[in-house]
């Protein structure tokens, strides 16, 4: 199988983070492509808990990942954006981790690089009446996971 083990997903998270950085720096494709990149990051980082919990090479469980998410606002927001973008709503089986069912991307700023076909995007997420920059949030989420994985001896 092409992709196996939690380490593959961890590298995938880093590739998705780099893609978000590239969206902020500017690239082709417009806003829809940039939104796809952003949502892909949140889905990848949130589902890392499943990859770790399902990998028999670790002793960690999905519950360990859920506990970590419950302890960190950045990961809670990531979970809500991931689940909201994947399931359309934050209710029922996927209630909001932040307590705010309206958590999601609320806006972006675009800088058009005239004559190049490139545009740079900056996105904002609102959760519990506070706005967060997507790239800042993404970097915080990766840092939390990095610290956790290092503390568990996996990095």
List the helices and strands and how they pair.
Blueprint: H1 5-25, H2 30-46, H3 48-54, H4 62-71, H5 73-87, E1 104-113, E2 118-127, E3 130-133, H6 134-151
Antiparallel strand pairs: 1-2, 2-3
Task: Summarize it.
The chain is built from 6 helices and 3 strands. With 155 residues, it is α+β, with helices and mostly antiparallel strands. It has one domain.
Portion in strands:
15-25%
Radius of gyration: 16 Å
Mean pLDDT equals: 93
- What letter string, H or E per element, gives the SSE order? HHHHHEEEH
Number of helices: 6
Largest sheet: 3 strands, antiparallel
Distance between the termini: 23 Å
Number of strands: 3
Pick out the low-confidence regions: none
Shape: globular
């Amino acid at each position: 199988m092409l992709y196996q083990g939690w380490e593959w997903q961890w590298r995938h998270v880093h590739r998705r983070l780099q893609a978000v950085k590239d969206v902020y720096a500017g690239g082709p494709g417009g806003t829809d492509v940039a939104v796809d990149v952003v949502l892909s990051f949140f889905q990848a980082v949130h589902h890392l808990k499943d990859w770790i919990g399902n990998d028999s090479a670790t002793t960690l469980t999905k519950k360990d990942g859920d506990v970590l998410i419950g302890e960190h606002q950045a990961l809670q927001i990531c979970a809500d954006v991931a689940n909201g973008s994947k399931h359309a709503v934050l209710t029922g089986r996927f209630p909001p981790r932040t307590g705010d069912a309206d958590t999601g991307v609320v806006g972006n700023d675009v800088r058009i690089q005239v004559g190049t076909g490139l545009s740079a995007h900056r996105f904002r997420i609102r959760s519990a009446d506070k706005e967060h920059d997507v790239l800042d949030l993404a970097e915080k989420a990766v840092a939390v996971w990095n610290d956790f994985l290092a503390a568990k001896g996996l990095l």
